[in-house]
Design a protein that fits this description.
Helix content is 40%, strand content 12%. By secondary structure, it is an alpha/beta fold. The chain folds into 2 domains: 283 residues, 3-Layer(aba) Sandwich (D-Maltodextrin-Binding Protein, domain 2), CATH 3.40.190; 159 residues, 3-Layer(aba) Sandwich (D-Maltodextrin-Binding Protein, domain 2). Strands 8-9-7-10 form a 4-stranded mixed sheet. A 3-stranded antiparallel sheet has the order 3-12-6. Helix 2 links the parallel strand 1 and strand 2. Helix 2 runs antiparallel to helix 15 and helix 17 runs antiparallel to helix 18. The chain is globular, with a radius of gyration of 24 Å. The relative contact order is 0.16.
Amino acid sequence: MKAKKIFATLMAATMAATVLAGCGGSSGSSAGSSASAPASQETASGEADTSIDMEGEPYTVNFCYLVAQEGADQQKVNEAVNELTMRELNMKVNMIPMTFGTYSNQIQLMLSSGEDLDIFPAFAANMADYITSQYIVDLNDYEPYLTGVMDVMGEEDYYAGTVAGFLTGFPRMQERGYPAGLVVRKDIFDELGYKIEDFAGIRPDNWDDYQKVTDLFAAVHEAYPDMVVLDGTVSLGTSTYAWTDVLSDTFGVLENYGQTTTVTNWFETDQFYQLAKLHRTWFENGYESADIATNTDSGEIKMKAGNCFSFLLYYKPNTAAEKLSQTGYEVEVIELSDACKMTTGVASAVFSIANASKDKVKAAQFLNWAYTNGEFNDLINWGVEGLDWVEDENGNACYPEGVTAATCGYHNDYGWIYPNQFAGHAWVGNDADIWDQYKVYNDSMMTSKAYGFQLDTTPVATEIAQLNTVWSQYQKDVCFGILDPDTAIKEMNDAMYAAGLQTVIDEKQKQLDEWLAAQN
């Protein structure tokens, strides 16, 4: 048995005991207890019978998922999903679509009231509460029914959602790293005589490399003095995932793409200072929009409006195709950092099984199927084939003839928040082998030395809340260069230490050291 599984089993038992002790030995929740073993059938050999029951009464899975908007063809998608699941699982599905705007309040009400719910997307920021409130089940207990997920994800990613030994859920199939990139309009870039090769190899171990970006901005500013050269809501200093393993948040990180095991204060590093100083130069030279620190519109929105040359983001293999669709402009992507695979990024959102599920074994079987079935992932992402989308000559999904984005009855383009977009179709405009490109991309990046570690935020929840308040007060003014980094960074750090930063760093180091020791 792997060391991480041994550790997970021991820690899960410890956490369950702690939770029960804190609740006086009762469930303490209308959702019931997550400590009970799964009710499953056994084979003659005593092993769990993981076969799908195709003869009994169909079980109804309550499946919550996120949508861009509730489309007119939602009912037709529901019917198509049910036809598929009855045929393959002898299960019905109660589809519960939610937009991001309604998700937070609705899911909290469903969980706290014990409303019927089997599977839902859960975000890392809420996991400590979900575990202690017993809203979700420990998926370590259902491993025999989840072999398909293991096959799809591999062992490392399968266990990435583990918090203090409790397997909260499974990540989505998407990019595994978040390197910083600068998206630039290709028409202007080409017109000024630039090639993407001119910016190859820009990395923070040589700050002079970034002068190339500043020179590009200067050239654009001279040629188009009325154009905003850099806009949006993302700065280099807030792109912490691009440079460090953030260990759940930015308050104590592992520098150098997680290739160290010493937790440090990112905001005191020379790297953070240099990034803030770079933005200070861009702001003072008029390359950034004057209101960039208060702007709430994304770079995509700004570029689509026609007067923005570039914006920053975390890039991935199909960023150029994605941004063409979102902005209407062909773009180039200048790579500004390497990629680091860290647990916080991979397990920032997982699919969990709710403790309110009436049959957790069948919920686990459905979740296992959802990670392996391309037709299901296409249905929840693109809608009904032939009605909302068709397959083009390159094997990609596209609108049927006569159907547009404005008239389509169901279309999400949310594959990144669904179980396994790689099992389904990519949208038109992507390379035919885009999912293979993702695999190469994911397999080639560095992996943090803390990969698999998830911080239990419970001991420092108060400090983290206070630090978030301080960070929200300073981050845009400091990171976009509105304030002089020579004075503003110290002022921000003083406020953070007063809010409990050292306590959080010490707790992270303690938990990380314990986790590392358990891996040996």
